[in-house]
Amino acid sequence: MPLLWLIGIVLAIAVAGYVIGRKRALDSAGGDPRNLHSLPSYYGSNVAMKVVVPSVLVLLVWLIVQPIYVGSVVSGALPDRAIADGSSRDLVMAEVRRTADGLNNAVAQGIMTDEEARDMRADFTDVTQRLKDAGQIVTSEVTQPILNAAQQFRAMNATGAIAMAIVVTLLAIGGLLWGLKESEKDFRARNTVEQGVKALLIAAASIAVLTTVGIVLSLIFNTYEFFKLYPWYEFFFGTTWSPSFSGRGGSSELGIIPLLWGTLYISIVALAVAVPIGLFAAIYLSEYAGPKVRAVAKPLLEVLAGIPTIVYGLFALLTVGPMLVSVFGKEGLGIMQSGTAVMTAGLVMGIMLIPFVSSLSDDIINAVPQAMRDGSYGLGATKSETIKQVVLPAALPGIVGAILLAASRAIGETMIVVLGAGAAARLSLNPFEAMTTVTAKIVSQLTGDADFASPEALVAFALGMTLFVITLGLNIFALYIVRKYREQYE
Amino acid sequence: MYDAPHYTERDVAQTDTKISAKGVQVYYGDTHAIKDVDVEIADKTVTAFIGPSGCGKSTFLRCLNRMNDTIDICRVQGDILLDGEDIYDRRVDPVQLRAKVGMVFQKPNPFPKSIYDNIAYGPRIHGLAKNKADLDVIVEKSLRRGAIWDEVKDRLQAPGTGLSGGQQQRLCIARAVATEPEVLLMDEPCSALDPIATAQVEELIDELRRDYSVVIVTHSMQQAARVSQKTAFFHLGNLVEYDDTSKIFTNPEDPRTESYITGRIG
To answer: Which parts of A230-290 fold into alpha helices (H)?
Structure first.
C-alpha cells in the first residue's frame, strides 16, 4: 500500500473524528453549546489531534528505522564469499539495493510476475537478462548471493510496509476512540488543544535549532576526518594553496592563509564601498527626503537586494572588470593585469551590500524618538548637527549591527568572487591582482572529481568550519558591541 | 485655592513686551488650528497658557520658536515679533532663533549622552565656550540654574538617561538655559512628573523669571495660578481671555473662562 494512501486514511479518520467528536460533545450538553466547557470545534480538534499525532509520529519513526534495520539484517546475512576482493560490504549492499529496485520495477512493469521475483531458486543469469530487457540498469552480473539477498530485502520491506500500515491505522483508530471517549461536556478540550498547539510550536523551534546543531556536527566530523589525513598546522599556517587532484595527499599544499587573506581583503574593499554609501543613503532617506522621494527611492534601493548574486558576478566580469582595466591596465596606469581582481569583486560586492546597510540603518534611524530631534532643534541645532550628534549616536548600536551583518554577507559571498576575483590563491597587497576566497575554493574543491575521502575534497569541510567559526566570532563581537553601547544609551 | 502671589502685579507693570503676536493663524493641512490670536508676552514674567486639550495652546507655543517648521503640513500666518523683529521674516534663521528662544518639552528628553555632554551640547554647537575650562563653567552655572547641580555634581559623566524623571526634566531645563536664551518656552513641563518633582520644577520656574521671559503651557490650573503672573485662556483655537493671573482666576470677564476654571467645560 503506498504511503500516500496511508496518510490519506489517517487524515480521513481525523476528519471523521473531528465531526463525530464535535457532535458527541454537543449531544452530551443537550445540544446547547453554552453548557460545554469549550467551544464545540475544540472537542473536534481534540479528537483529530489524538488521531493524527501518535499515528504520524510512529509513521515517521518507522520510515526512518525500517531501512536501517532491514539493511543491517540483510547485510549481516550476506556470506563473506559474496564480497569480491577490492570490494566492500557497503558496495555489495548497494548492488543488492539496486537489484531489489530493479525487481520492483520489473514487477511494476509486468515483465515479471511477483512469484518469479520471489522465487528463491530462480536462474540468476536469466534474471539479469530479464532485468536488462526491462530497462533496469544492472551494473554487473547478478550473482546468486546478491539475488538471494535482494529477494530477502524485498520480502522484508514488503512485510515491514504491511506491518507499518496496520500499526499506523490501529493507532489512528485507537486515538479516535480515546478522543471520542473524552468528548463530553465537562472535558477541558480547549486547554488540551492549546497544549497541542504549544507542543507544535516547540517542535518547530527545536527543529530549527537541531538542524543547526546537525550542520555543525557534520562539519566537525568531516573536519576531523580531514585533520587525520592532513596535518593541522600546515592547514592553518601554510601560506601556499595548491591542491593536486591527480596525486594523493602529499603533493597537495592546503594552506588556508592565502584564502583567508583574499576573503578579508575583498570584504574590506566591499565594506569600504557599502558602509559610507549605504549609511549616507539611509540618512538622506530618513531625515531629508520628503515622503514622495522616500516612497520611490527606498523600494528602488531595496531592488538591489533582490538581484541574484550571479547577476552581480556577470556585472563584475563584463562591465566593472573591463572598465577598471581601461583605467588601471596597460593602456592606463599599468598596475592591473586583467579584469578579475580584488578591486573588481570588492566594488561589485560593495554595491550588493548597499541596500543591506541602508535599509537596516534607515529603519534604525527612524526608530530614534522624535523627542530627541525636537530637543536638539529646540536648542538651535541645525539638521546636520542634530543627526551627527544626537540621532547617529542614539542609533549607533543598530548601525553597528547592520554593518556586521553586511560583513558576514561579504565573507560568505561566493558567486561574485568566482566571476570577479579569479581563482588564484595568492598573498598580495595589490588590490588589482586576482585573488580568491574561502567560499570560492570550497566550491571548486567539491565540484571536481576528487574522491570524497581524499584530503583535497575533505579540506572543503575544514574551510567551511573555519569560515563558520569566523562568522560566529564576528556575530558574538557584534552582540558585545551592541550591548555595550545599549548600556550607555538607555 | 488659586492664590496668585500678590506682589507680582507691580513687577509686571514695570516690564516691557518681549514677544508680540498679531493676527496669528495656524493651519495643519485643512484644519484651522489657531484662529486670529493676538498676544503680548512681557519680559521677565511667567506667562501661562491654559485651556482644554486640543485648544491650540501647544501649537501656538511652538510658533514662538518656529518649531512648527519641522512639521511639513503646518502653515503659520500673521506676525510674531521678538523684540520688535518678525521671526517669520525670510532673513531670520530659525536655527538662531531657537538658540534665543529655548524650549522644554512635555516628556523629559535628555540626549543619550552624559549629563555633562547634555548641557554642553548647546554651547558647543553655538561656540559659546572658548576652551574646556570655559565650558566647565557654563555647565556648572547651567546645572545650578536648573537646580540640579548638587544632585549630579559627582557624576557628570553618567548618562543623562539614567536620572529620575524629575531630574531629567530639570536637566532639560538646564540644557535649555545653557545656550543663554532670552525666552524659555515650556510645553507642559510637569505633566510626566510626580508631585514632588513638580514642586521642584515650579520653584525653578519662579527663579528663572528673574532672567528670562518664561511661557508655560499647562493643563493644571493650580500650576498656572502658582507660577504665572499672566494667564492666557485658549479655547477651540481662539484666545478667549488674556490678563493678569489673579484677575483670570478671581474675576474672569468671559463666561467661557469662568466655566473652564470652575470645571464646567474642558
So the answer is: 232-237, 257-283
Alpha-carbon distances, residue B8 vs A235, B147, B212, B229, B233 (angstroms): 86, 22, 15, 6, 19
Residue B56 and residue B25 in contact, taking contact as beta carbons nearer than 8 Å = no
Contact A407, A267 (CB under 8 A): yes
Do residues A328 and A432 lie in contact, with contact meaning Cβ atoms separated by under 8 Å?
yes
B258: amino acid identity, one letter: E
CATH code reported for the domain at B8-261: 3.40.50.300
Q: What is the pLDDT of residue A394?
A: 86
The answer to whether B25 touches B76, Cβ cutoff 8 Å, is: yes
A306-343 pLDDT, tens digit each = 899 899 999 998 999 888 888 887 777 777 778 788 89
* Dist CA A156 CA B89 (whole Å): 95
The stretch A81-89 carries a mean pLDDT of 69
As a whole number of angstroms, the distance between CA A93 and CA A164 comes to 24
CA A83 from centre of chain: 37
* pLDDT tens-digit series, residues B158-176: 988 889 888 999 999 999 9
Contact with chain B for residue A480, Cβ under 8 A: no
Tell which residue, A180, A185, A202, has the closest CA to residue A46: A180
Q: Which of A290, A377, A385 is nearest residue B67 as measured by Cβ atoms?
A: A377
Per the listing, cell 473662562 goes with B257
- Our measurement of the distance from residue A368's CA atom to the centroid of its chain's CA atoms, rounded to an integer in Å, reads 35
Cβ(A378)–Cβ(B67) below 8 Å:
yes
Tell me which residue in A369, A379, A390 faces B176 most closely, judged by beta carbons.
A379
Domains of chain B, by residue range, sit at: 8-261
Q: A279 pLDDT exceeds 60?
A: yes
> Three cell numbers at B263?
470645571
Contact predicate A359/A370, CB 8 Å: no
Whose cell is 457532535? That residue is A23
Of A375, A380, A381, the CB nearest to B109: A375
Subunit contact A378:B159, Cβ cutoff 8 A = no
Looking at every residue in chain A, the average pLDDT score rounds to 85
Q: Is the pLDDT score of B154 beyond 90?
A: yes
DSSP β-ladder status, B46-50 and B230-235 = parallel
What pairing do the DSSP bridges indicate for beta strands B17-28 and B183-187? unpaired
Q: Cα separations (Å) of A171 from A157, A167, B125?
A: 21, 6, 77
Residues 6+ apart with CB under 8 A from A433: A337, A341, A342, A426
Are B111 and A394 a contacting pair at CB < 8 A? Answer: yes
